[in-house]
Amino acid sequence: MVWRLYSGLLAAVISGGVSLIGYCITTYFQNKNNKETLKVQRQNNSDTIRTQKEIAKMEKDEKLFYQTQLEWSEQTRKLIAKYVLNCILMNRQIKKYNRLREDEKIISSIADAERPNNEYLSVLSEAKKLGNELQEQITLIRLYLFHKDDPDEARILTEILEMQQHYSRFEVIPDLELDGFVNDARDLFDKQMKNLQKKTA
Q: DSSP code of 149?
């Protein structure tokens, strides 16, 4: 009977020992697997964070690119507006010059003849100043509208050169030509804005 008691106790101790060893082995492998899983999760998290940073940088760069394009378009718009204004001012100077030439034909005294000379000089001086400003604006506009394959930009540049021929010969730029130029410029800017909206959508 004692033997049976000891054998039951011995069986319980052996069973408990086997269970403890099994538990220890299971815990060891679970910890090992958990460490590997954590290592993989850390790596995945690191990769995810790196990818998110790259995406954020790309979005920032893209936003900066489109913002730069908007600023570029705005600068071109201002240049063209200034160019049109100076063309109008040049037309006024040319008309004033032509009026002085007509008045010169009917001058009756020497005193009258001296007065237009001063006005001529003033008109020519202002026209020269406007001509220099127009030339500077033409150069800048040509630098801003550089896309060779864009027919709208090419049309704007062609119209500018045609208007330049008028005032370089001291001829008035026809109002219809100036109006057509403004409308073509508006169409160009409208197209540019629509393209930017498509790209950012």
A: T
Contact 90, 131 (CB under 8 A): yes
Closest by CA to 167, choosing from 129, 116, 119, 121, is 129
Amino acid in the structure at residue 21: I
> Please, what are the averages of pLDDT over each run of 10 residues along the chain (201 residues)?
63 73 76 74 76 76 78 88 94 89 62 62 87 91 86 91 90 92 92 79 61
Q: How far apart are CA 75 and CA 58, in angstroms?
A: 25
Contact 184, 155 (CB under 8 A): yes
Q: Is residue 181 within 8 Å of residue 159, measured between CB atoms?
A: yes
Best CA proximity match to 145, nearest among 85, 73, 58, 38:
73
Cα 87 to Cα 173: distance, rounded to the nearest angstrom:
8
| C-alpha span between 54 and 72 (Å, rounded) | 26
pLDDT attached to residue 137 = 92
Rounded to two decimals, the pTM is 0.66
